[in-house]
Amino acid sequence: VATAAGPAAAAGLWSEVNRCGQNGDFGRALKSVNKILQISKDDVTALQCKVVCLIQNGNFKEALGIINTHTKVLTSDIIAFEKAYCEYRLNRIESALKTIQSASQQTDKLKELYGQVLYRLERYDDCLAAYRDLIRNSQDEYEEERKTNLSAVVAAQSTWEKVVPEDLGLREATYELCYNSACALIGQGKLNEAMKKLQKAEELCRQSLSEDSDVTEEDIEAELAIIHGQMAYIMQLQGRTEDALQLYNQIIKLKPTDVGLLAVIANNIITINKDQNVFDSKKKVKLTNAEGVEHKLSKKQLQAIEFNKALLAMYTNQADQCRKLSASLQSQSPEHLLPVLIQAAQLCREKQHAKAVALLQDFADQHPANAAEIKLTMAQLKIAQGSVTKACMILRSIEELQHKPGMVSALVTMYSHEEDIDSAIEVFTQAIQWYQQFQARTNYGCCVFQPKSPVHLSLIREAANFKLKHGRKKEAISDLEELWKQNPKDVHTLAQLISAYSLVDPEKAKVLSKHLPSSDTMSLKVDVDALENSHGATYVRKKAGKLTGDNQQKEQGQGEVKKKKKKKKGKLPKNYDPKVTPDPERWLPMRERSYYRGRKKGKKKEQVGKGTQGSTTAGSSELDASRTASSPPTSPRPGSAAAVSATSNVIPPRHQKPAGAAATKKKQQQKKKKGAKGGW
């Protein structure tokens, strides 16, 4: 009875498992499978169904445990995909790759997973080939998803490997394809085109999600968060940091579930803040430490976040934390420049410049490929300390940059600042010799004359000018002769050469001056009238009118006789009286006239009486001795006595006031009183 009941019960349980699987109820299906395994613990189909149910419920670790404990029953040929998928979801990417490669038969499911594994391992070339093969050899409803993954691989190559993406000919009908295309354009630096693609992706996303009635506006905004994040990144690259910061903060307020997106946005905000708003940066750095971030981002993204953490520790004066982070980064990437530069910067903040230079020197000795960048930093530190000569020595030790015009210019400027003219000339000489040797190497020993490169000629000219400026005329002459030999028609160089020889060898200067072109050949075809009438000309010649008939005869008869200018009649005062003799001293200032007595002080005192208000002092005018007839004037008036007596009441023309002056003055006083405010 027991043996007969077992198969019957198992058949019912299998029916239950099938029904639950079709309905998507994998929890109930798992219970039925467990009952089947109680009846037959080594049933291969039951074990395989249990693994699938656990995967569907997200229990990847338990599913992998069952696979590993039943290896004899569940061989790699049967369960290879499920095992690799569990390892992939548990972020055991290398193990998943080995499982896929060890499978005897490469099914379409394994190929799909193989492409995902290669993408996570950042093996983009192999991943691209895998997806191309899948698209070519499969035809089902997942073709659009494969094309999306293919475009994602191309975008990753453009962003992280700086590979120019090829045109895949994909029709950007979905917002995912538009988004990936925009990322590829960002990798190429085509920011404006990328922004347009993102705007199109946003529009397509809204259209596709709004068609579903169950999707809310919050769900749409959450889906658009990654698109808006890329838009903000473009704004940041374009220097629109305020707009980028505003959009970043809007995304953070939405609280998206994607920890990778939050970490990237928080990192970008920290880079905008730099050494400012440190408190906000310390809050944002917590988002970069969320669980699972390391599995969502690429290696370069994670490395950039760690660099920014070290810099933030330096800005917040956490010296030990900064050293710890930079040392960890250096151990992970021994040849990377940034960790050692951060350590040197921290030492400089601690006023330990000598240790910083020693640290950089050790790194340069160990990694010669990166020595140039390190030595430039060392030179900058020496300049900051005031050791310009030592900085020049460091710069001259960078062999691959010695001949560069920028390096030559910097060294000459620094040596000139230190008044070391010999060293500056030596820098010019070495650079010119390098170009001569380079030209000899490119000619392969040929004796054919070859013109010098523009950079070479420019260095020779600058060297000649520098030597002339500092009185090294004989040395400058050899450079100028070399330039003139290269271009005998160069009048400017010939003029400089003659000028230099005139101070050293005048006879040679005379000989060379014969090579100068004549004044006729050097005359420029210039329209003088147009030049004089042009805007900004300091002198404009007046156009002479055409003379005809009598005017022309008069002009010829007069010749060069100058026209007499008519003198204007002088203006007389309005109250001028021709009968009155003018004051002969009228041209002198008032203070210098013979009859000036100075200003009369207290003019109105005589009108103020003493006593009660309103009373008058009797005989006040009679007591004034100046008003008596017997009192003689203090000084005689100019002219005869008869003239004085006859005109004693007449004011000279110079002192006469216009008739309407008093009236206008009264009117002005009345206007002032009307407009005044306040008062008694």
UniProtKB/TrEMBL annotation:
Q: Where is the composition biased (Basic residues)?
A: 562-572, 664-680
Q: Where is the composition biased (Low complexity)?
A: 626-643
Segments forming domain Signal recognition particle SRP72 subunit RNA-binding: 542-598
Main location group: cytoplasm
Region Disordered: what ranges? 541-680
Q: Where is the composition biased (Basic and acidic residues)?
A: 574-595
Which keywords label this protein?
A: Coiled coil, Cytoplasm, Endoplasmic reticulum, Repeat, Ribonucleoprotein, Signal recognition particle, TPR repeat
Q: Which domain of life is it from?
A: Eukaryota
Query: Which ranges form a coiled coil?
Result: 93-148
Cellular component, GO, one term:
endoplasmic reticulum
Q: Where in the cell is it found?
A: Cytoplasm; Endoplasmic reticulum
Q: Where are the TPR repeats?
A: 225-258
Instruction: List GO molecular-function terms, semicolon-separated.
Output: 7S RNA binding; ribosome binding
**Tell me, which GO biological process terms does this entry list?**
SRP-dependent cotranslational protein targeting to membrane
The UniProt entry's sequence similarity note says: Belongs to the SRP72 family.
Q: What is this protein called?
A: Signal recognition particle subunit SRP72
